[in-house]
Design goal:
Blueprint (H helix, E strand, L loop, with lengths): L2 E6 L4 H13 L4 E7 L19 E5 L5 H6 L7 E4 L6 H6 L2 H21 L3 E7 L25 H20 L3 E6 L1 E3 L8 H10 L4 E4 L5 E6 H14 L4 E5 L4 E3 H11 L7 E4 L14 H6 L8 H14 L1 H9 L1 H10 L5
Parallel strand pairs: 1-2, 1-4, 2-3, 4-5, 5-6, 6-10, 7-9, 8-12
Antiparallel strand pairs: 9-11
Bound molecules: nicotinamide-adenine-dinucleotide and thymidine-5'-diphosphate.
Length: about 350
């Protein structure tokens, strides 16, 4: 039976990996529409190789604009997977407006259209950052019922969207799922985020700007394991529920920087300590046991192996990131990191 999946934000890092994963793992009966506003973080090149696949179509539009969202419903939609978001914490500290518009209002507009049209599932791609920060020196982890306590404007906007999605399930009986994943890394990630920024800087012999003392801990998962987990929730999740996604891989930022320097044969002297991020969450740690028990999903890519593959991808795809870094990114980088001697 044909199923039509509407993926929003499909030109971004995780959305493009997810679309490629879907095309690789489903047959001709799965049709995909990618609704993307093509913001600075989008890159149509991420999907250039599948552009002519008859199972795939792109619709240009803003999820916060109901007329644009309607365009994505040229045929009945079975499943919505909402990746579209402003996703970078540092940018949300500079200015939060776009975060509220896309992440909160956009989710509301998408929910409303999906509800009026009728879908089998609305999957909201959320983040562990909605749970706030854990202390450094404990074994505490985020569970699905850990209270929401976001600290950055980005996390607050994602938490707002989660609450709205949950309200549509409770109020309207609308079929929703929420996934909350830890920090992703892998190919096609915009180089403003820690791992691609440090890998591309290290490959060019530029400084790696480490915030504060580099002691903050993140829980890293390879993007392919995240995409597989989303698909497991699409196929086997229970409506109205939240599923945490992670691969039990906590590292502090200094250790990640050192691993990147080792993988790129770059010198430790590139590490440059810079002013800390305001409100910088100390530690994230996800417990994905619920998803593992509900489905046959488990993370498959170990961090050392995944990082080696990721560094190889950036080494082999220099044209991709040099082009990205020359445009809007350059302006952002100079504004944010201009004081660092490269
Ligand atoms: P990204 O910034 O790489 O891509 C975002 C995509 O959304 C871009 O293609 C952009 O053009 C599109 N977009 C932005 N505003 C839009 C709008 N108003 N209408 C339509 N499209 C719009 O993001 P990412 O890192 O791929 O993250 C995708 C999702 O996963 C986000 O919802 C994010 O909160 C969540 N998430 C990310 C991570 C991570 O580590 N990157 C971890 C957990 C969850
Ligand atoms: P980031 O990739 O922005 O993800 P998030 O803030 O959503 O977790 O940052 C990951 C960690 O790396 C976070 O603790 C902040 C830190 N960081 C730096 O030390 N330097 C940088 O230049 C960046 C972008 C991040």
């Amino acid at each position: 039976m044909t199923q039509h999946i509407l993926v929003t934000g499909g030109f971004g890092f995780i959305g493009s990996n997810y679309i490629r994963h879907l095309l690789e793992t489903t047959d001709g009966d799965t049709l995909i529409t990618n609704l993307d506003h093509v913001t600075y973080a989008a890159n149509p090149e991420n999907l250039a190789d599948i552009d002519t696949d008859p199972r795939y179509e792109f619709v240009h539009g803003d999820i916060a604009d109901s007329r644009a969202v309607e365009k994505a419903w040229s045929k009945e939609v079975d499943i919505v997977v909402n990746f579209a978001a402003e996703s970078h914490v540092d940018r949300s500290i500079e200015s939060s407006e776009a975060f509220i518009r896309t992440n909160v209002l956009g989710t509301q507009v998408l929910l409303e259209t999906a509800r009026s049209r009728g879908v089998k599932l609305f999957l909201q791609v959320s983040t562990d950052e909605v749970y706030g920060s854990l202390p450094l020196d404990t074994q505490d982890v985020f569970l699905e019922d850990t209270p929401i306590a976001p600290n950055s404007p980005y996390a607050a906007s994602k938490a707002g969207a989660d609450l709205l999605v949950q309200s549509y399930f409770e109020t309207h009986g609308f079929p929703t799922s929420i996934t909350r994943c830890s920090n992703n890394y892998g190919p096609y990630q915009y180089p403003e985020k820690l791992i691609p920024l440090f890998v591309t800087n290290a490959l060019d012999g530029h400084a790696l700007p480490l915030y504060g003392q580099g002691i903050n801990i993140r829980d890293w998962i390879h993007v392919t394991d995240h995409c597989r987990a989303i698909q497991a929730v699409v196929e086997h999740g229970t409506p109205g529920e939240v599923f945490n996604i992670g691969s039990r891989n906590e590292r502090n930022n200094l250790d990640v920087a050192r691993a990147i320097l080792a993988a790129t044969d770059a010198d430790e002297s590139l590490i440059t300590y810079v002013t800390d991020r305001p409100g910088h969450d100390l530690r994230y740690a996800i417990d994905p046991a619920k998803l593992e028990q509900h489905t046959d999903w488990k993370p498959l890519i170990d961090f050392e192996e995944g990082l080696t593959q990721t560094v190889a991808w950036y080494r082999d795809n220099r044209t991709w990131w040099e082009r990205v870094r020359s445009g809007a990114f350059r302006e952002y980088y100079d504004r944010r990191y201009g004081a660092i001697h490269e």
